[in-house]
Specification:
It is globular, with a radius of gyration of 19 Å. The strands form two sheets. An eight-stranded mixed sheet has the order 4-1-5-10-6-9-7-8, with helices on both faces. A two-stranded antiparallel sheet has the order 2-3. The protein starts with 9 loop residues before the first helix and ends in an 18-residue tail after the last helix. It has helices at about 10-15, 35, 40-45, 50-55, 80-90, 105-110, 125-130, 170-185, 200-205, 220-225, 255-265, 270-280, and strands spanning about 55-60, 70, 80, 95-100, 120-125, 135-150, 160-165, 190-195, 215, 230-250. The protein has two domains: about 40-140 and about 240-290, D-Maltodextrin-Binding Protein, domain 2, CATH 3.40.190; about 145-240, Periplasmic binding protein-like II (D-Maltodextrin-Binding Protein, domain 2, 3-Layer(aba) Sandwich). It has twelve helices and ten strands. Helices cover about 35% and strands about 25% of the residues. With about 300 residues, the chain is of the alpha/beta class. Keywords: Signal. This is ABC transporter substrate-binding protein. InterPro entries: Solute-binding_3/MltF_N. It holds the Pfam family SBP_bac_3. It comes from Cryobacterium melibiosiphilum.
Amino acid sequence: MRARFVLPALGAVAALLLTGCVDNSTPAPETNGAATSVTADDAAVALLPADVAASGELSIGTDAAYPPNEYKDSAGAPIGWGIDLATAIAGKLGLDPDFQISKFDNIIPSIVGEKINIGESSFTVNPARMEQVDFVNYYEAGIQWASATGTDVDPDNACGLRVAVQATTVQDTDEIPAKSDACVAAGLEPIEKLQFDTQDLATNAVVLGQADALSADSPVTLYAISQNDGELQAAGDTFDVTPYGIAVAKGNGMAEAIQAALQSLVDDGTYEEILDEWGVADGGISTITINELAAG
């Protein structure tokens, strides 16, 4: 996601993201005061599955390669507003957060396989993912394209262009294939989708001229633009606003516990404070729901 945007830990991330493995030596996250100063909410704690409550920890899967939502600092510790929010959720549940860094498309299988408790990695809530896990909605984000500064790229007229995306995101699985199919149906050249394991590499492809544009979630794209010293620009407006959700296993009560913890954070102002700290308050919501597909 940037020229200077290649994170120092990127090589390490690539090494550990094989076959669904997690990095159990992840340093403690660097969180702001709002995330670490919360007190347990008894009503939320009471909803926890007994085994999770007894463990004293909330194991959290995250990709940590999607600034400013989830990424790594120079020491390899997870940071970002999503990390802060997950830390605060753990606090509301009276648990210690245990972040486990994994390849994005291995997080949901790890939840289903009971290797981790939740996934906090900017998951867009959609029916395909809901077949495997439940989602506790916590934010609303749209899709935003970016291109090299000075270029003229229109997301609604991108036939024949090279568009960089992170693998297994909605942009990869839904948006770009649908746009490309529409191009072909109109007798035009398809979009060449360039798929990358991390958003960092997708953004760098645009900066280096290997791609004409990138497509990512709005807070991620806008952060990438701000970090690239004028090399990137927004291409078109934000569109297709949809919810982000915390991924949890189906039927074990975890969804209700996370929902209660998040609603408590909203009600006491901690949620808004975290979003304000990272400059992403525009996507904040006031009511926490479960498996809500439409942005409200």
